[in-house]
Amino acid sequence: MALKIRMSRGGAKKRPYYRIVVADSRMPRDGRFIERVGIYNPLLPKDNTERLQLELDRIKHWLEKGAKPSDRVARFLDEAGMWKRKERNNPQKALPGAKAQERLAAKQEAEEAAKEAEKAAAEEAPAEEAPAEEAPTEEAPAEEAPAEEAPAEEAPDEEAPAEEAPAEEAPAEEAEKED
C-alpha cells in the first residue's frame, strides 16, 4: 500500500480549510484516510500560529513507514525542518544562451564606456564653462544699467548734440594745428 501525506479539502465555497492526512494514494482527495496529522487554514494571516498545525511526532512515524508527502505538505515539513524538499525548478534553464550572453556582455561594456566618456567630458566641461558662466552674469547687469540710465539721459541728449559738435571740431582743429 502506497501511503501519501496530503491535504484534504473542507470548508465552504471560497472558504477553504484543509486537513493534513495520511491516506492510501489510491483513495480520492477528500475520501477515506488513515489518520489526520494536522490542519491548514489559508484564510488566517501568515503570522498566526493557528494557520498551520502539525503533529510532528505522528508525521515522523508515517515518514518512517514510507509515506511520501505531497508538494504542499513537503513545503510545510521543510519549514518545520522534518523533510528536505528537492528543488523542482531548474534555474539554469532560465539563463539565456551563449550568444545572447555575449551580446549582453558587449552591451554592458558599451554602456560602461559611454559612462566613462560622459564623466571625462563632465570633468573637462566645468573648467571651461565656469568662466563662460561668470561672463554673462557680469554682462547682464551692464546691459541693464544703460537701459535704466536711458530715461535720465533723455534730457541731456538734447544738449549732447551741441556738446558733440564742438567735441568733433576740437579734434579736427588739433589735427589742423599739427599740420
TrEMBL record:
GO terms for molecular function: acyltransferase activity; structural constituent of ribosome. Residues 81-179 are annotated as: Disordered. InterPro entries: Ribosomal_bS16 (IPR000307), Ribosomal_bS16_dom_sf (IPR023803). It holds the Pfam family Ribosomal_S16. One of its GO terms (cellular component) is small ribosomal subunit. The keyword Acyltransferase applies. The keyword Nuclease does not apply. Residues 125-179 have a biased composition (Acidic residues). It comes from the Bacteria. Keywords: Acyltransferase, Ribonucleoprotein, Ribosomal protein, Transferase. Residues 81-90, 100-122 have a biased composition (Basic and acidic residues). GO terms for biological process: translation. Belongs to the bacterial ribosomal protein bS16 family. This is Small ribosomal subunit protein bS16. The gene is rpsP.
